[in-house]
Amino acid sequence: MKKHWYLLSYDIVNEKRLKKFHYRLSKHALALQKSVFLLEASTPELQRIIELVACHTHTQEDDVRLYPISHPKAIWSAGIQQQVFLGLNCANTVEPQRKTLDLVSYVKQLCHLSA
């Protein structure tokens, strides 16, 4: 069954539910930041993750979002969590020695990658 890539982000108010949610989600996805996960899932796997979200969130207090992405290469990253992407060996990152990358240079890099 074909799998697709997703970014899942969350803001859970209750600390106990937050810890439980993070722990359970980390079994299915890769933490990119404290509340942002990258996952690759088939439709049935995604349905199980959505059920997990529904069981551990309160719709009046919490915010959980799921964004489909074409591939981790679609994500640009820089900073201390950049090592996560380098470990995947598939996302667009700024080299560790470079502090900044202006927008024009970034767009040129993307055009070069897709050519």
Automatic annotation (TrEMBL):
EC number: 3.1.-.-
GO molecular function: hydrolase activity; metal ion binding; RNA endonuclease activity
Any single Pfam family the record assigns to this protein: CRISPR_Cas2
Residues the record lists as binding Mg(2+): 11
SUPFAM superfamilies tied to this protein: TTP0101/SSO1404-like
Annotated keywords: Antiviral defense, Endonuclease, Hydrolase, Magnesium, Metal-binding, Nuclease
Task performed by this protein: CRISPR (clustered regularly interspaced short palindromic repeat), is an adaptive immune system that provides protection against mobile genetic elements (viruses, transposable elements and conjugative plasmids). CRISPR clusters contain sequences complementary to antecedent mobile elements and target invading nucleic acids. CRISPR clusters are transcribed and processed into CRISPR RNA (crRNA). Functions as a ssRNA-specific endoribonuclease. Involved in the integration of spacer DNA into the CRISPR cassette.
The family this protein is said to belong to: Belongs to the CRISPR-associated endoribonuclease Cas2 protein family.
Name this protein carries in UniProt: CRISPR-associated endoribonuclease Cas2
Gene this chain is encoded by: cas2
